[in-house]
Amino acid sequence: KAYLERISLVDPKVKAYITVTEDLALKQAEEADNRILKGDVEPLTGIPIALKDVLCTKGVQTTCASKILENFVPPYDATVVKRLKGQGAVILGKLNMDEFAMGSSTENSAFFPTKNPWNLECIPGGSSGGSGAAVAARIACATLGSDTGGSIRQPASHCGVVGMKPTYGRVSRYGLVAFASSLDQIGPMTRDVRDCAILLNAIAGYDPKDSTSHPSPCPDYEKALSHTVSGLKIGIPKEYFGQGLGDEVEKAVTKAMALLKENGAELKEISLPHTEYAVATYYIIAPAEASSNLMRYDGVKYGLRAEGYKDLLEMYKMTRSQGFGPEVKRRIMLGTYSLSSGYYDAYYKKASQVRTVIRKDFIEAFKECDCILTPVAPTPAFKLGEKLDDPLQMYLSDIFTIPVNLAGLPAISVPCTLSNDGLPIGVQFVGPPFKDEVCIHVGGAFE
Ligand code: GLN
């Protein structure tokens, strides 16, 4: 009730929620109370959590912040949602995002932009901007986001909260509306690293419903929490400290490095030589997969169907023209182009090869260090509208997070300091594949 009341007071300003599921939440809270009375308590019993609106929720609208899914009510829960409910979590509602998770500012939502709670004139980051803003504004205890190229870590950094993208395959994608299937992962956004570990414990683990879900058992991530970084070897990739990195973020990350060193970590310069190709590679692979995934929105099976068409082809055309926003259309055009028969080898195949090389860079680097420290975003949160007319500038918001998705690695963004204007700046710790606990360890010790 306290959270619902705070939502009604604060959310009109922040605009993090697309849907508040008040009645359902109160019902779930009552059930949680009953469980607690019976002594049947799990870590999330009664904890109010909100979800990025890209996660299917049974009986509750799941819009992906798109007109094409505005009235879509899934008949099933995503595996992560099922697991949260299984523990007795209370679902407060569905959070705003960039349409189909394409963007870095939440301004691509078809409904309205979300504001950064630290400064309402600034973007909260994206695409999980609603998830970041809701935790920062204390209108959800914790949230889930999705991260294809940085969409959990970048808004976490901009909103001063913790955000983690698990190893690809660690968390089931069943019921996550697909953007780029080989890159997408669901992850927690929380006030601190302990909450992140608790949430990861709840959602991680094998799921037969996702063919890319990994069968290896998960450790107890909460047990990975530690107060010391002593003896830890932290790699500093020199390629992340050149062009494109803003002064304030560079200062913040340098400060973080000094702090870690003071506390006994060993800092080691490393090289990830193919970093400069990551953004270009991503913007071939992600749109290609998106164009294929988004084929299903044809006015037949899901959501919107345009009116006044003459025949089937026109129905497809009108539905997709009216239903998708400009950024989604841009991605579909890029993707269908690079997948077309004459260009497949030159673009998609080449990008897949470069992706392998980028992953190998990381695997080599992890022979020399336990984890890698980098900036999260080049600058603190920018003003609403500032990059809206310049997609390329917007794409560069993710230069430090995209390589991690291409390589399928776990990474966490932890608040580091405030900018001169009082905006949060995060720092990123990247772990080796399936060593998500390393992120929890170093992130937790750092915060
Ligand atoms: N900003 C990137 C994009 O627009 C990443 C988005 C994401 O991680 N979902 O594709």
Give a quick set of tags describing it:
alpha/beta; 447 residues; binds glutamine; 37% helix; 11 strands; 14% strand
Give the CATH architecture of the domain at 2-224: Alpha-Beta Complex
What ligands are attached or bound here?
glutamine
Q: Which sheet architecture does the biggest sheet show?
A: 11 strands, mixed
Rg (CA only): 21 Å
Beta percentage is 5-15%
CATH superfamily of the domain at 2-224: Amidase signature (AS) domain
> What structural class do you assign from the helix and strand content?
alpha/beta
Order of helices and strands: HEHEHEHEHEEHEHEHHHHEHHEEH
Using the coordinates shown, work out and report the CATH topology of the domain at 2-224. Answer: Amidase signature (AS) enzymes
* CATH domain class name of the domain at 2-224: Alpha Beta
Percent helix, as a range, is 25-40%
Provide the spatial order of strands within the biggest beta sheet.
1-3-2-4-6-5-10-11-9-7-8
* Beta strands, count: 11
* Distance, first to last CA: 30 Å
What is the 3D shape?
A: globular
Return the average pLDDT rounded to an integer. Answer: 97
Q: Any low-confidence stretches, pLDDT <50, length ≥5?
A: none
